[in-house]
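Reading is simple: the token line describes the chain's fold. The lines below illustrate.

. . .
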Amino acid sequence: MPIQQITIDEFIKMDTSAFLLLDVRSPSEFIHAHIPFAFNLPLFIDEERKIVGTAYKQDSRENAIKLGLNFFGPKMSGMIEEVEKLIAQNKILRRIKEQHNIPIVVHCWRGGMRSAGVGWLLDLYGFKVFTIIGGYKAYRNWTLQQFEIKYQFKVIGGYTGSGKTDIIQTLKKKGEAIIDLEGLANHKGSAFGNLNAIPQPSQEMFENLLAMELYQLRNECIMVEDESQRIGDINLPIKLFDNKQSSPIFFLDIPFEERLKYIVKDYGKNSKEKLINAIMRIKKRLGGLDTKNALNFLLEDDIENCFAILLRYYDKHYLKGMQRCENSSELLTTILCEKVDAIANTETILAHLNC
């Protein structure tokens, strides 16, 4: 069967569990950002790509192709074996293989020679091969288009320490449509949001992940946590952020003391060094006196009073953000909660929702 070319819209509509997606760009291109469920099968490593690209620009297309073939030839057998290994590791694809040929979708940056070369090899071996017209660049254009769409968001709000992320996850377990923005960004949103030093994805990769989730839930009422536009080093796309800001918000009103207990338990287990570094990151906004007092309490092992200062700061910061939202009073539903309890508070929120 000849290699088939498909548009990005045709690709997006395919059942992701029923085919193998291979990104044949170089490792560094793939690591920076890729289609979320793709596997990297690089035609060229980074240095080889540089050599071929230089030859294409400074010499000729023909010479670049010859150089590329010199790199490609010795890898052919290994690339086939890698594809077979990927199929063998996937239960669904193994079952498909038992019935008929497995569809393999191949793409490079713009749907050019790299995807054509690998596609040719896989087709020659006997796989059913598709290539994406426009390659990864077409996917990026599709990704950016998703942020122009108006979504039906329901926003879970509340001051710091309200357990909003726990509620989002509890809603997911109950079958509600949710997008965990902090989870996608690998960050909890505040100066203390990356104490475990988990690397954040690139901005581009975050957008790719987010766009895919938005597409999958495009016809649903989507629950999201009330985030600022910036989550660590990641920025929410401005139109999507504006969409969220103009959506109904369900504000969890939980007593200060209960929230303080929650964050002491959640963040208090971190080392003093990490906590001091986090406090110093907000020194200018926190103010000299509060910074000094917070650090002194921390050094004296008085975590509760240290965090009380920080919690008051974040409460003021959150309140200012809410006041900047247009029609905030019309969009706001305040939900009184006695304590930070994800299960009980989730049930209370569900009683107020009307999706």
